[in-house]
Design a protein that fits this description.
Two copies of one chain form a homodimer. By secondary structure, chain A is mostly helical. Helix content of chain A is 58%, strand content 3%. A two-stranded antiparallel sheet of chain A has the order 1-2. The relative contact order of chain A is 0.08. Chains A and B meet through helix 3, helix 4, helix 5 and helix 6 of A and helix 3, helix 4, helix 5 and helix 6 of B. The structure holds a DNA duplex. Chains A, B: This is Helix-turn-helix domain-containing protein.
Chain lengths: 144, 144
DNA sequence: ATAAAACCTGTAGTCACTACAGCTTCAAGC
DNA sequence: GCTTGAAGCTGTAGTGACTACAGGTTTTAT
């Protein structure tokens, strides 16, 4: 019979948390494991593999829904992989957009900080800069 | 008497939403405006300024809590601005870390996608790559 | 045998909104 | 002045992806 381990060991081995594992089970991302005589979850290496898959995908920024789709896809190994490819491609586009946006924020914060002459709040450029409209993409009317 | 406008006009002028404005009021980021005879909110230019300040700060990634601190600071204009400066500085560090992290993800997704030979799911590198450990920073034991 | 650590379920809290239900009020056209 | 539809009101629930807690049971180590 297969070697099994507790939820605590699985959390430790995977670098995640006990609560997260139980949460993934309730939303169906992890299959329900067997229980021992005392009703405690006993995991196998297959659970570990699945959990690591989910954690990696989350680390890459995939939503739970996207991961669910990938798992569903992997249950039909003879289908073409265009869909899986598409999920990753969309994610890549999204990551690139987030990088671009964050770089704008970085520049804006640098601008904000460099203009601060460390006086009192009344003359603080940080607060002032936020009240004004720097590299702002928002559609609003100009400040008075 | 001052010119006032409705919550809808304020939303439109600021590029935000009616619900968001009411939400900011309930959590104390916007002061409660006067009401007209029919109990509807009537805003002034000062409300608009405050809202734009909050929206800009949110766009820059500041948390509601950080914005609350900045607003509190701005009520004491004679204090030194070191604290406001510090909030922006922490935010800049955070933004830079997020950028660095996203760039790792980008590289990983590129790697994942470029190795896909567009066959069937069984041989799909996208799913396979997620199951394995690329540029992964997570502390877990190696896959079998 | 006992005590501490780990586990269980179920529920509530987090953040920053967003959506909805079921009302009241306002503005424009006739 | 009347009607109608848009806009406003309050209060509550839902979102995503967990996280924390209360109050119990089981396992493990001594």
């Amino acid at each position: 019979m297969e070697r099994t381990f507790s939820i605590g060991k699985l959390a430790e081995a995977s670098g995640s948390k006990v609560e997260t594992i139980r949460y993934y089970e309730t939303i169906g991302l992890l299959p329900e494991p067997e229980r021992n005589a005392g009703n405690q979850r006993r995991y196998t290496a297959r659970h570990y593999d699945r959990l690591v898959f989910v954690l990696h995908a989350r680390d890459l920024g995939l939503s739970i829904e996207a991961i669910r789709q990938l798992i569903d896809l992997s249950k039909h190994p003879d289908l073409p992989c265009a869909e899986a490819d598409e999920i990753a491609r969309r994610q890549l586009l999204d990551v690139r957009q987030r990088i671009a946006r964050l770089k704008l924020l970085e520049a804006e914060l640098e601008r904000t900080l460099s203009s601060c002459s460390h006086g009192t709040i009344a003359e603080c450029k940080v607060i002032e800069a936020l009240a004004q409209c720097g590299a702002c993409e928002r559609h609003h009317r100009p400040t008075r």
